[in-house]
Amino acid sequence: MTGCGAPAQTATLPANVDAGREVVLTGTVLSGGEPVGGAYVRLLDSSGEFTAEVVSSEGGDFRFFAAPGTWTVRALHRSGNGETVVSPEGPGLHSLQISVA
Amino acid sequence: MSRDNVLVSAEWAEQNLTTPGVVFVEVDEDTSAYEGGHIPGAVRVDWKTELQDQVRRDFVDRAGFEKLLSAKGIANSDRVVLYGGNNNWFAAYAYWYFKLYGHQDVQLLDGGRKKWELDGRPLTKDVDEREATAYTAQEQDLSIRAFRDEVVDAINTKNLVDVRSPDEFSGKLLAPAHLPQEQAQRPGHIPSAINVPWSKAANEDGTFRSNEELTQIYGDAGLDGSKSTIAYCRIGERSSHTWFVLRELLGHGDVKNYDGSWTEYGSLVGVPVELGTGKD
Description:
Chain B: It catalyses: thiosulfate + hydrogen cyanide = thiocyanate + sulfite + 2 H(+). Chain B: InterPro entries: Rhodanese-like_dom, Rhodanese-like_dom_sf, Thiosulfate_sulfurtransferase, Thiosulphate_STrfase_CS. Chain B: GO terms for molecular function: 3-mercaptopyruvate sulfurtransferase activity; thiosulfate-cyanide sulfurtransferase activity. The complex is a heterodimer. Helix content of chain A is 0%, strand content 50%. Chain A is mainly beta. In chain A, the strands form two sheets. In chain A, strands 1, 2, 5 and 8 form a four-stranded mixed β-sheet that branches. Chain B is an alpha/beta fold. Chain B folds into two domains: 3-118, 3-Layer(aba) Sandwich (Oxidized Rhodanese, domain 1), CATH 3.40.250.10; 148-265, Oxidized Rhodanese, domain 1. Chain B contains eleven helices and nine strands. In chain B, the strands form two sheets. Chain B has a five-stranded parallel β-sheet. A four-stranded parallel β-sheet of chain B has the order 7-6-8-9, covered by helices on one side. The longest helix of chain B is centred in the middle third of the chain and has 12 residues, at 89-100. Chain B is globular, with a radius of gyration of 18 Å. The chains are: A mainly beta, B alpha/beta.
């Protein structure tokens, strides 16, 4: 039985994920221009409803599997918070940067 | 039931790190978080390898729980403060589990690891050895644990609260959006269940919402406070979070957690399953 905890966040996709079929939101959390690990990155749907949360890796990386639509990706960190909005129209890798301050 | 009996704030926790008789316990599925830094003095419990039977799908038995807590250096009289990642899902699961085996004094750290980290409070990699105890557990308190047959019987009778995301509830997904989709069971939900995602009960820093807000959320969703309630999710940890809210924060009398949850129910032969939002 696999739990519900988030897997390790990496910049490269796991081998079993096909970016030609999935809407992948991937990106980096930055503070003062430098990547920060340990940020809590939350995926909110178009109504602002919580969908998923992961913790950024040491290199600041995070990743979600979403669907076409409008999403807010919000990062919380002890140095501050930040967010960005993304509207993927179809499958593929959608790269984001979120600055926290 | 007072909030202060079942929850402690991060501030209180930091002031009581070395208080005799208080034991902080980090519970996670991924225990690498603990190794990277934990609350000073906290012991670790591994949700997967220490709380689950490693052969059958069930919990460790009473003797196994006694052995585990004895080895961790936790005494019957200790006040156990649980915390973890994932918005305290696994800590809430452990809270329910400690209650199942009759531990009297157990609390959750409000906000868990997230709130602690966002506050910039201290973490350490040092592991303190605690002297072993002779812990005595009770028989499982089955008034808080639901099994599959009573879940089927609860359809259209009790409150069934499905705390998964709307897409898991409707049958679009089999697992949360941050996980690869896995396991060959039927998607959907138990007929007559209401869908109140666990996240509705939490603020973004992982702390629980106020009792007034919580009462409104479950009331608006159609939870009938005069009835018994069974909460479920996929494997029983997110629903522990909601079980904690309904029974320990809001004081509802008869609330059970169905730990078999969708990975069991969605694989049963012959039981009714509903697709869609449930509101049609």
